Description:
Layout: H1 3-9, H2 18-27, H3 45-48, H4 66-80
Amino acid sequence: MEPAQAEEDNWMPLESNPEVINAFIKELGFDTSQFSLVDVLSIEPWAQEMVPQPVTAVFFLYPVTEKQKEFKKQEAEKLKSDENKVSPNVRILI
């Protein structure tokens, strides 16, 4: 078995039940009286109106397809190529 395949076979699905996640993050010390996770049923306006405000973050949980894996691989190869070199005119200010 190839190392990449072995790693993929050992991946555990992420829990997506807000009640379970909220209980878990509370045990980790997260202030669930101020922030909590909820299900978003759709990105349409009617569903967004049901989400408590303000929203601090959004998690998208979805299955990864072979097409997405191939795209990720292509993007990684692009990043290794010369076409993605940073211009000498770019300056980083700290």
